[in-house]
Amino acid sequence: MRIGFFDSGIGGITVLHQALRLLPNEDYIFYADSLHVPYGDKPKEEVRQYIFEAADFIASQGVKALVIACNTATSIAVQDLRQKYDFPILGIEPAVKPAVQQCEGTRKKVLVLATSLTLKEEKYHNLVRSVDRHDIVESLPLNGLVRFAEQFDFSEESVLPYLRDQFSHLDLRQYGTVVLGCTHFPYFIPVFKKLFNDDAEIISGSFGTAKNLKHILESRNQLSDGTGEISFYHSGRKVEDQATLTQYHRLFRMLDEM
């Protein structure tokens, strides 16, 4: 059986990329809800409906696990999804805990970058409260980055002015760790590096999610000997046109080169 990956758009490929490194012999379904992207600035209940429609479709394809490769979707629906389905469902959340651990005792702060909806959710605030004993975590929504990614525009010429404007009220030298709390954001790591000090770490939760996926499959004796084949879907429609598939493969190459 295959492993399902779900995101509002192409951001989840950054998580799937990590899974392929750890589990190259598994076969995958990648579902991008391209009809409704972006999620981060939509009403919560509307997004929940889209998430459950996507999960129902992926479940109908026969999967042994589902990765919600979207911080926004995880924050508002992962617990309810786990109650509905009998296969493991993994989410992703901003890597606040390791970021705080890295910065404690350094006089540096943590900056969490995510979508508005993720940062509004109680799940995120509970996470921060549980680890931020010294009040060093700050957050900033960057919904515009999702739109850049969905347009496959990763150019410094486009993205750098946007980021400089969003960061204009911050002293970027004070941050020791930058948390990418949206799976679309790792595509822009080369641009982020131009703005932050060389000693600032830029991290996400993608590797931790992939590592947890591998652990769960091993514990359930469900590892496969497949070929690493990926079937792509856009809001329930299988992607078969070569132009789109070529764009997806370009994303994997980009991530390989980072």
UniProtKB/TrEMBL annotation:
Keyword Cell wall biogenesis/degradation appears in the UniProt entry: yes
One Pfam family per UniProt: Asp_Glu_race
Active site, UniProt feature: 70 (proton donor/acceptor), 182 (proton donor/acceptor)
Reaction catalysis annotation: L-glutamate = D-glutamate
Enzyme Commission number(s): 5.1.1.3
GO BP, sorted A to Z: cell wall organization; peptidoglycan biosynthetic process; regulation of cell shape
Matching SUPFAM superfamilies: Aspartate/glutamate racemase
InterPro entries in the record: Asp/Glu/hydantoin_racemase (IPR015942), Asp/Glu_race (IPR001920), Asp/Glu_racemase_AS_1 (IPR018187), Glu_race (IPR004391)
GO-annotated molecular function: glutamate racemase activity; identical protein binding
Entry keyword set: Cell shape, Cell wall biogenesis/degradation, Isomerase, Peptidoglycan synthesis
Pathway: Cell wall biogenesis; peptidoglycan biosynthesis
Chain residues that bind substrate: 7-8, 39-40, 71-72, 183-184
First-tier enzyme category under EC: isomerase
Function statement: Provides the (R)-glutamate required for cell wall biosynthesis.
PANTHER family assigned to the protein according to its UniProt record, in alphabetical order: GLUTAMATE RACEMASE (PTHR21198)
Family: Belongs to the aspartate/glutamate racemases family.
Entry-linked HAMAP family: Glu_racemase
NCBIfam families documented for this protein: glut_race
Name of the protein described by the UniProt record: Glutamate racemase
Highest classification ranks of the organism: Bacteria, Bacillati, Bacillota, Bacilli, Bacillales
Gene name of the encoded protein: murI
